[in-house]
Amino acid sequence: MVTVPAELAEIREWWARRPGDERRRRIAGSAYDQLTPPGVDNPYWELVRQLPSVLDAGVRPDGFARELPVGHHVLTKRYAWAIPSPGDIDWLTRLIGDRGLVEIGAGSGYWAWQARQAGIDVIAYEPADPSANPYTDGTEYSPMLRDGHSAARHHPERVLLLCWPSHNVPWAAGALRAYPGDLLVYIGQEQGGNCADDDFFQLLHRAWIPIGSSPHHISWRHTGSTMTAYRRRGPRSGG
């Protein structure tokens, strides 16, 4: 079984074969680095921060660099489609306060695991059995409930988290429509990208207003995303 220390060692060997300025194109040790707090386990971030990255006009890890021992396709299926940096989790913690979080379509449960380590009270739902989930490698990092998008209706007091909802699939719109609360965190691409469907974005633009984004969010070079909080515009209507 491949371990994270072994993969980190392979990445170091990959860099050793590439002398010169390229060696400094890592997040680790750069002005864009974010350190994992003591006692927190975030292997996804520890691997990503060692990968080659574009460090001008933002930060974009390149998971498709030639001969990388571990890259985008492996890491997104093993952990999550969006990278949870330590700054993202801190931003989420401050946004939520003591309200708690409900995540619909939690995938491997990696974001829920990171949130729980930060002290956030999380309820995570994922309808797919891990052995049958095509978006993960079958690993689960956090306890999850087996229910679908409509489970959002049970948690009006919690903040709703939707992370990279499936492209052109209606469950994200269904979750947002079912949710009776007033605060959403959406992680993913804008309309026309590879997340959710047009119904979701139409509902989002009609009934919700952005109130802030994580300034610490780092996304893959070829699959950019944002982490944005939205407040419901007014009293809930039929959507």
CATH architecture of the largest domain: 3-Layer(aba) Sandwich
Shape: globular
How confident is the prediction overall: mean pLDDT?
93
Largest sheet: 6 strands, mixed
Supply the number of helical segments.
Answer: 7
Give the strand line-up of the largest sheet.
Answer: 4-3-5-6-8-7
Order of helices and strands: HHEEHHEHEEHEHEE
Helix residue percentage: 25-40%
Q: What is the SS-derived class?
A: alpha/beta
CATH homologous superfamily (4th level) name of the largest domain: Vaccinia Virus protein VP39
CATH class of the largest domain, anyone?
A: Alpha Beta
According to CATH, the fold-level topology of the largest domain is: Rossmann fold
CA radius of gyration: 18 Å
Unreliable sequence segments: none
Distance between the termini: 48 Å
Count of the domains: 2
Amount of beta strand: 15-25%
Counting DSSP E segments of at least 2 residues, the number of strands comes to 8
Description:
The protein has seven helices and eight strands. With 239 residues, it is α/β, with parallel strands linked by helices. It folds into two domains: 75 residues, no CATH class; 147 residues, Vaccinia Virus protein VP39 (Rossmann fold), CATH 3.40.50. Helix 6 runs parallel beside helix 7. The longest helix is centred in the first third of the chain and has 13 residues.
